[in-house]
Design a protein that fits this description.
The complex is a heterodimer of chains A (about 150) and B (about 725).
Chain A lengths: L1 E5 L2 E5 L7 H8 L18 E4 L2 E4 L5 H4 L3 E3 L1 H4 L3 H12 L9 H14 L5 H8 L9 H15 L1
Parallel strand pairs in A: 1-5
Antiparallel strand pairs in A: 1-2, 3-4, 3-5
Helix pairs in contact in A: 4-5, 4-7, 5-6
Chain B lengths: L10 H8 L13 H11 L1 E5 L2 E4 L4 E5 L8 H13 L6 E5 L4 H4 L15 H28 L6 E4 L2 E4 L4 E4 H8 L28 H5 L15 E6 L7 E6 L1 H4 L4 E7 L2 E6 L2 H10 L1 E5 L8 H11 L5 E6 L2 H7 L2 E9 L11 E7 L2 E6 L4 H12 L6 E5 L15 H12 L6 E4 L2 H6 L7 E9 L5 E10 L18 H4 L11 E7 L16 H19 L3 H7 L5 H14 L13 E11 L2 E11 L5 E11 L6 H20 L5 E2 L2 E2 L17 E6 L17 H13 L16
Parallel strand pairs in B: 3-4, 8-18, 16-17, 20-21, 24-27
Antiparallel strand pairs in B: 1-2, 2-3, 5-6, 6-7, 8-11, 9-12, 10-11, 13-21, 14-19, 15-16, 15-18, 19-20, 22-23, 23-24, 25-26
């Protein structure tokens, strides 16, 4: 049994230590907001925060998450920055198919937690690992700037 | 001059013809009258198949089309809400069940499905009437309750009001009485000048759920006792299972069963990760006697050879042989296009549950009728016994509109193989999705054109070589005289006034790579070759690419209008600012119609000495008739440009000895945020009926980009994706 702290709640899960955190979240705990996209940390759809840092849960063994504070899309709205990012996303109607957007938002929140006034280059750096096949990137950029403004 | 030009036939027309169907007309729900009784219990007012008003004052619009990102839930709801005079905040959207009687795509006949950018176009009249008739019944209910003439009652923002008496009621308050009113025989639709929502800003209905992780995709479905299946597919198309050893797979914790199905061997487990591990441990021996074993280079050689001889004539005007033999100057060019995977963010998946008297699926379902029929056939059921729960799709780009329900049938075979003892969620991992076939077909084009002594374009021959999408599918009846219209659309309807033109097609039938429609279908390649070649001809003729096109578009005012608008907004007639030392800059244009929408784009690029480049800016003008939701249109323009840019810059599925070389996003690269240009969108004001926006913005991007690269470097792109080595200074 592995004890996980997810969105402020402790859960004990019976999982092989090499199981990616993604599948524990999705299949065991049914926190399905975190998405499976590639399984190789190439697309960012599975991004969650581990002790405040964005990580690709598809390539993070659950054993590495034990004892860490995990935040997923289901819990990110409880923080001021998380709420601001979700609101900006909604105001600008960023989403299209929406499948990658949990990961996009998690990466954007991590960026703004560390950098309240990101430049376009900062955004390119922080968001470069998140693929959106609908190519909502124009609005992702705009929404990050908008969230930054609302947090100022 | 005799003209025997074959009109471009769109995908929807083929679907319609293939099924031998006539256009259905709007009919109120057959069950609406009977539903009245039921409503008394639920206090719902459901005047027709497309909306329901509850006593809690919510208006639920029932969407017959799949929401895969294109914004269709929002668009359909806007049309209903407009004629209903609902308040946008009270409107919600729910997916329609599979029922081709009530929810057929009117452009396709009695078939339910989403594609060909037809959702809004076919729903426009139908949903306006649906909204207007419900409104009339709410007015009748108020008139009855207040004992006032219906003509004195007004409706606005979800409130029904009688000004003289000061009475007013919400839709919810009137729902019960409205349900008892007779269905109006006819309704008056609004004058467009009175539109309150259409053409204005109506925010997306799916934004909140998709930004909080609450939106439910197929991948998110968990049913009690459900097993997850991951399938070992053959490494080459056409191969089959010879034998397999499941001992090691079954030893993996969580693996429950291993079964052979027609398309491979499925490992069923309690969760996805165990199923994946089980599949990795599986030993399968494949029978490759019927497998396709050529590489894409060899396919291309065959195509180039075929292009040396005339193909089947797809369209003809005048006498192109004569024209090309007498002109002052002829030019020739050929273009190569690779296979492309759809690579939607949500890899393919489907949940199936078998019951005693039917089966039920959960899926981002794009072709409900095809899927119902396929499963009914497999299980010996009637189509009505196949229940489909249509969920959000995490993208599709055409892939989920499977011609033969391939992945859905696969899921069903797995459920059948375990005798339906548990619901099954089939999950294709990214590699399965990338290597699973059903690609945009590879194509080779060869074009010849003639210029007369005054530099006018007088002869045009366009020869295409590529697999048919419709062949071997339930839509094969759409192939007429050997021509699959989806192969030549965008080429046969070239808008330019060229007196002598001929389009020819070779359709190889010995290539075993499954092909499929991919966002904007034939225009993904025809717009490129035609618009690049026209651009090159303009240059040779010494003409301005925009002005020259316009001289040939007199009979196509909508093409001309978007072209002029894009050029004007891009500042076409002012010089492009120079780049930094060592950088070359260029501007290029393209215009194309697909799915009855007209789009022009001007792209600006900066090319470095090593041939690497960035697209700085794209100015896009679009005419898609009445703009229902301008912001959704802008979003589709932005997204389509990014999607098309992925294909132009990076996209290629290649094969080596029949095996697909790519597997995931590292070797099949989509654009990322830093690749995106600045995008400016201009929507042409229009009173014409709305047409599509999901696909038509894709085709012009690659040719506009290639023409910009030619302007910057003097080098013409002949092969996609663009090879930066060829752009070196």
């Amino acid at each position: 049994m592995i004890t996980l702290n997810i969105n402020g709640k402790e859960s004990r899960v019976d999982a092989e230590p090499d199981t990616p955190l993604l599948w524990v979240l999705r299949d065991t705990l049914q926190l399905t907001g975190t998405k499976f996209g590639c399984g190789m940390a190439l697309c960012g759809a599975c991004t969650v925060h581990m002790n405040g840092e964005p990580v690709r849960s598809c390539s993070t063994p659950v054993s590495a998450a034990a004892g860490k504070k995990i935040v997923s899309i289901e819990g990110v709205g409880r923080s001021r920055v998380g709420k601001a990012v979700q609101h900006a996303w909604q105001r600008l109607d960023v989403v299209q198919c929406g499948y990658c957007q949990s990961g996009q938002i998690m990466s954007a929140v991590a960026l703004l937690e560390n950098n309240r006034k990101p430049t376009d280059a900062d955004i390119d750096g922080a968001m470069g690992g998140n693929v959106c096949r609908c190519a909502t990137y124009v609005r992702i950029r705009a929404a990050i700037h908008e969230a930054a403004k609302s947090l100022a | 001059m005799t003209t025997t030009r074959i009109e471009n036939a769109s995908r929807r027309r083929f679907l319609q013809e293939a099924a031998g169907l006539t256009l259905a007309i709007y009919l109120p729900s057959a069950t609406a009258a009977g539903a009245g009784k039921q409503m008394a219990k639920t206090a719902n007012f459901a005047p027709n198949a497309f909306l329901r008003i509850a006593e809690d004052n919510t208006v639920t619009v029932i969407a017959k089309h799949l929401e895969m990102g294109q914004g269709v839930y929002t668009g359909l709801a806007t049309i209903v809400a407009e004629e209903l005079d609902a308040d946008w905040s009270q409107v919600r959207v729910e997916s329609a069940p599979a029922d081709a009687k009530r929810y057929n795509n009117l452009s396709w006949g009695p078939m339910q499905g989403t594609g060909g950018s037809s959702a809004i176009a076919n729903s426009w009249e139908q949903l306006r009437r649906a909204g207007a008739s419900a409104r009339a019944m709410l007015v009748a209910a108020a008139a009855q309750q207040w004992n006032t003439p219906a003509a004195e009652i007004v409706v606005a923002n979800g409130m029904v009001m009688h000004k003289a008496s000061g009475r007013k009621a919400s839709f919810g308050q009137l729902a019960r009485v409205a349900a008892e009113q007779p269905m109006p025989a006819d309704v008056k639709l609004k004058d467009p000048k009175d539109f309150q929502l259409i053409g204005k800003h109506a925010p997306r209905k799916d934004s909140t759920d998709k930004t909080t992780g609450r939106a439910v995709f197929t991948q998110d479905i968990h049913l009690p006792g459900m097993l997850t299946a991951v399938v070992a597919h053959p490494p080459r198309f056409g191969a089959e299972v010879k034998s397999f050893n499941a001992t090691k797979a079954k030893a993996i914790k969580g693996v429950v069963d291993v079964v052979q199905i027609p398309s491979g061997v499925a490992v069923l487990a309690k969760d996805t990760w165990s199923a994946k591990k089980g599949r990795d441990a599986l030993i399968v021996e494949w029978d490759e006697s019927a497998a396709f074993k050529l590489g894409s280079d060899q396919i291309l050689e065959k195509y180039r050879e075929l292009a040396k001889s005339p193909g089947n004539v797809a369209s003809r005007a005048g006498d192109v042989d004569k024209a090309l033999s007498t002109v002052a100057r002829t030019l020739e060019a050929s273009y190569d296009f690779p296979y492309l995977a759809h690579a939607a963010m949500e890899p393919l998946n489907c949940v199936v549950r078998l019951g005693k008297d039917g089966c039920e699926i959960w899926n981002g379902d794009q072709m409900q009728t095809v899927d119902q029929m396929a499963l009914a056939k497999l299980f010996g059921l009637t189509p009505e016994q196949v229940r489909i729960n249509t969920l959000y799709a995490g993208g599709s780009f055409g892939r989920r509109a499977s011609k033969n329900a391939d992945y859905i049938v696969e899921a069903a075979h797995i459920a059948k193989a375990i005798d339906g003892r548990a619901p099954v969620k089939l999950v294709w991992l990214r590699e399965d999705d990338m290597r699973g076939g059903y690609y945009r077909p590879m194509f080779h084009h060869r074009l010849w054109a003639g210029l007369d002594d005054q530099g006018r374009l007088v002869g045009w021959r366009h020869r295409l070589v590529g697999q048919s999408i419709l062949a071997g599918s339930p839509f094969a009846a759409g192939i007429k005289d050997g021509i699959d219209g989806t192969s030549v659309e965008g080429a046969t309807n070239l808008p330019y006034a060229i007196p002598d033109m001929q389009v020819e097609l070779h359709t190889p039938t010995d290539i075993g790579v499954p092909v499929h429609w991919w966002r904007s279908v034939g225009s993904t390649h025809t717009a490129f070759s035609t618009e690049c070649f026209v651009d090159e001809l303009a240059q040779v003729a010494g003409k301005d690419p925009v002005a020259w096109r316009l001289t040939m578009l007199e009979k196509h005012p909508r093409h001309a209008a978007v072209l002029k608008l894009a050029a004007e907004k891009a500042g076409w007639n002012t010089p492009l600012p120079a780049g930094k030392p060592g950088e070359r800059r260029g501007r290029g244009v393209a215009v194309h119609e697909s799915f009855k929408s007209y789009v022009a784009q001007v792209a600006e690029v900066t090319v470095k000495g090593d041939g690497s480049y960035r697209v700085d800016r794209v100015v896009c003008a679009v005419d898609c008739g009445i703009a229902i939701n301008p912001d959704v249109i802008r979003a589709q323009v932005e997204g389509s440009i990014g999607f098309a840019l992925s294909a132009a810059m990076y996209g290629a599925i290649t094969l080596t000895e029949g095996k697909v070389d790519q597997s995931n996003f590292h070797d099949y690269q989509p654009v990322r945020i830093a690749d995106m240009p600045r995008i400016e969108v201009h929507i042409v004001p229009s009173a014409a009926n709305p047409t599509g926006i999901g696909e038509p913005v894709v085709p012009p991007l690659a040719p506009a980009l290639a023409n910009a690269l030619a302007a910057a470097t003097g080098k013409r792109v002949r092969k996609l994706p663009i090879n930066t080595d060829e752009l070196k200074a």
